[in-house]
Design a protein that fits this description.
12 strands, binds S-adenosylmethionine, Arc Repressor Mutant, subunit A, 7-stranded mixed β-sheet
C-alpha cells in the first residue's frame, strides 16, 4: 500500500505562516531589549551575537526561521537544482580560505565604500580576475558586499573573517586541513582496513595528512598553522556558547563550598568562568600532567585568590586508567566523550563512577543529537513544531555536521540522549535531567 504523504501545498502555507509569525517574535524580542535588528550590510556587532546573550525565546525563533526557510525553498525548487547546489557546497570553504589567507576582510576594515578588487589583489599578490570571482561568489552567499561592480566591502558576516576575530581561526582550520581531510571520507569508509575502525590513526584526517590531528600541529606542515588552531578553539567556544554554563544549571540552589571536579578540564577555563559568577563553589581541575601545568599558569594569572584560599586544586589524571579525586559533589565532563569510542567512554565513566559518593552528580556537557524522524511516543523533548523536521533540520544542522567532523578528524562521534543514557546505565548511573543549554545539552546523572 502506498504511504500517505503530506499535502505539500498545506505544508508550504504552514511554513510561510510560521516564518511570518516567528519574524514578528524576533522583532518583538529585539525591541523589548531596545534594539533594532542589525542589517546584514552593517559591520558593527549586534546585541545578541554571543549565544549567552540570546534568550530562550529568541534562540528558538532563530532556529525556526533557519529551518523553515530552508525547508520551504527545498520544497518549491526543482530537486535537481537543489542537489546540484548542495554538491557545489565545497566551493564556499575553498573560496573562504583564499579570502582568509589574502586577509581581504582585514584590508576592508573601516572602508564602507569598499576597495576595488585590483587593489585587493595587489595587496595579496593574487590574480585580480580570479580573486574577484571568488569574492563575488562569496558575496552572492551574503559574505562580503559588492558595492559597485568589482568593488567589495565588509558586511556582518565577513567581519568574522578579520584575523583578530577568533572565529576566523575556526574558519581557517575547517576550510584548510578540515576540508582536505573531509575529501578522504569515502575512501576511509570503503577501505576494509579502516571501514569500521574507531582509531584516530584510521581517520580520514590521518589518511589526508599522514598524522592524527594533534600530531599534525607538531609536524613541519602543521606547526605553521598551530596558532590558528589555538585561535580556532577560542572561536569555537564563542560560537557554541561556552559562557552558557553559569546560566544553564540551578547553581543558585547548590550548597556553599560544593566541589566540582572538571574531568579532562584542560586549563579549567570553564570552571574559571563559573566560579566568577558562583564564588561559593570549589573546584578540582584534572587532566593529563602537562595540561595541568598549563591550568596552574592560567589560574595564577586569572584567579590567584582561588589558589591561595585553596578553593581550587590541580590534580593530574589519566582518565582511562585512574579514578578522579573522590567524593566531589559534581563530576563535569565537557566535550570528553565525543572524542572516544564506546569502549573507552565506558572506561572513563567507570572510573568516574568509582570516585562518586552517594550524593555526587555527573554532568555531561555535549551536543545531544536527535533523529530526523518524529517521536510520537509522547516522551520526546524539544521537538520542533510540524511541518518542520523534529530535530529543527537546518536550524540545528551544525550538531549533525559536527558529528561528521568528529568522524573525519578523530573517527569518534557525537551521540543521542538515548546513546548517553545507555552508556551511563552500563556503568552504574541513572539519568535525571537534560538541561537545555543552547547548542549543547547538559545531561545530569546520579548513581543508580
Ligand atoms: C576536547 S578537550 C575538552 C577540554 C575541556 N573539557 C573543554 O570543554 O574545553 C579534551 C580534553 O581531554 C584531555 N585528555 C585527553 N586524554 C586524556 C586522558 N587520558 N586523561 C585525562 N585527560 C585527557 C585533553 O588534554 C583535553 O584537555
Amino acid at each position: 500500500m502506498p504511504v500517505a504523504l503530506h499535502n505539500s501545498s498545506a505544508d508550504i502555507i504552514a511554513l510561510a505562516n510560521l516564518i511570518s509569525s516567528t519574524v514578528q517574535e524576533i522583532v518583538t524580542e529585539y525591541s523589548k531589549a531596545g534594539h533594532d535588528i542589525p542589517s546584514l550590510d552593517s559591520t558593527d556587532s549586534g546585541p545578541f551575537d554571543a549565544p549567552e546573550k540570546v534568550s530562550g525565546t529568541l534562540s528558538k525563533a532563530i532556529r525556526t526561521i533557519e529551518a523553515a526557510c530552508a525547508q520551504l525553498s527545498f520544497t518549491v525548487a526543482s530537486p535537481g537544482h537543489v542537489m546540484t547546489n548542495k554538491s557545489y557546497g565545497y566551493e564556499e570553504p575553498a573560496g573562504m580560505l583564499v579570502a582568509l589567507n589574502a586577509k581581504v576582510a582585514d584590508h576592508l576594515v573601516d572602508k564602507p565604500e569598499g576597495l576595488h578588487v585590483d587593489e585587493l589583489a595587489l595587496k595579496s599578490d593574487l590574480d585580480a580576475g580570479k580573486l574577484g570571482r571568488i569574492l563575488r561568489m562569496l558575496a552572492t552567499k551574503h559574505c562580503f558586499r559588492e558595492v559597485k561592480p568589482n568593488v567589495f566591502a565588509n558586511n556582518r558576516l565577513s567581519m568574522q573573517m578579520v584575523s583578530t576575530n577568533p572565529v576566523s581561526g575556526l574558519l581557517g582550520h575547517m576550510s584548510d586541513e578540515g576540508l582536505r581531510a573531509g575529501s578522504r571520507l569515502n575512501e576511509a569508509l570503503t577501505d576494509p582496513k579502516t571501514a569500521s575502525s574507531t582509531s584516530a590513526d584510521d581517520s580520514p584526517f590521518h589518511r589526508a595528512h599522514g598524522v592524527s590531528l594533534f600530531g599534525f600541529y607538531e609536524s613541519p606542515v602543521g606547526s605553521k598553522v598551530s596558532e590558528r588552531f589555538a585561535q580556532a578553539m577560542v572561536g569555537w567556544g564563542e560560537v557554541t556558547g561556552k559562557a552558557m554554563l553559569p546560566k544553564v544549571y540551578a547553581w543558585e540552589n547548590v550548597s556553599e563550598n560544593a566541589t566540582l571536579c572538571d574531568v579532562g578540564g584542560n586549563n579549567g577555563h570553564m570552571v574559571l568562568d563559573l566560579m566568577k559568577e558562583y564564588p561559593k563553589l570549589k573546584a578540582v581541575i584534572q587532566d593529563l600532567p602537562p595540561v595541568i601545568e598549563q591550568a596552574k599558569e592560567l589560574w595564577t594569572k586569572e584567579n590567584p585568590q582561588a589558589i591561595e584560599k585553596r578553593r581550587v586544586e590541580f590534580v593530574p589524571l589519566d582518565f582511562l586508567k585512574e579514578t578522579p579525586v573522590p567524593n566531589c559533589d559534581f563530576y563535569y565532563l565537557r566535550h570528553i566523550l565525543h572524542d572516544w569510542p564506546n569502549s573507552d567512554c565506558q572506561k572513563i565513566l567507570s572510573n568516574v563512577r568509582k570516585a562518586m559518593g552517594p550524593k555526587s552528580r555527573l554532568l555531561i556537557h555535549e551536543f545531544v543529537l536527535q533523529p530526523a524522524v518524529r517521536d510520537t511516543s509522547g516522551t520526546a523533548v524539544n521537538q520542533a513544531p510540524e511541518p518542520l523536521l523534529p530535530n529543527y533540520g537546518m536550524g540545528r544542522v551544525r550538531l549533525y555536521q559536527q558529528d561528521i567532523n568528529m568522524m573525519i578528524l578523530f573517527n569518534s562521534k557525537e551521540r543521542t540522549l538515548q546513546e548517553f543514557i545507555e552508556l551511563t546505565e552500563q556503568t552504574g548511573f541513572k539519568f535525571e535531567k537534560l538541561w537545555d543549554s543552547g547548542e549543547a545539552g547538559l545531561i545530569e546523572f546520579t548513581i543508580a
